[in-house]
Write a structure and sequence with these properties.
mainly alpha, Arc Repressor Mutant, subunit A
Length: 127
């Protein structure tokens, strides 16, 4: 699925809408991965940064939980409760930000490892 250029919504909103629908319709079941940022960027033909924005929207709605191992769908029935501010509303906001930073850190780690692997391969050729 690619992003429709004639759609007035931003690309991240279109991607979020598609994933939201898939989670709510059970195409992506609770507890299952929604896909890596790289896979979703390829699927929607958008940049990883745009994918991150879409995932942030869904995380803020309570439809996603992000760990160091990926982004997982949550039960849509429980998502409404998760998105509601609790008495520790400030704490939940901090936790969401921490999840986002953890996700970005994981992506950066993957990129550094790929770069280092490519660099060591070139160093071997030069010798």
């Amino acid at each position: 699925m690619t992003i429709a250029e004639d759609d007035p919504r931003q690309p991240y909103e279109q991607a979020a809408a598609t994933l939201r629908r898939e989670i709510r319709e059970g195409v992506i079941k609770p507890g299952h991965k929604v896909g890596s940022v790289r896979d979703l960027a390829s699927r929607f033909s958008i940049s990883p940064t745009t994918v991150q924005k879409a995932l942030t929207v869904l995380r803020d709605e309570g439809l996603l939980m992000t760990t160091g191992r990926g982004n997982y769908a949550r039960d849509p029935k429980q998502a409404a409760d998760a998105a509601k501010p609790a008495s520790g509303a400030d704490l939940s906001g901090v936790l969401r930000q921490l999840e986002h930073v953890t996700s970005q850190l994981s992506e950066l780690r993957d990129r550094v490892e790929r770069l280092e692997a490519g660099h060591s391969g070139r160093a071997d050729k030069d010798q």
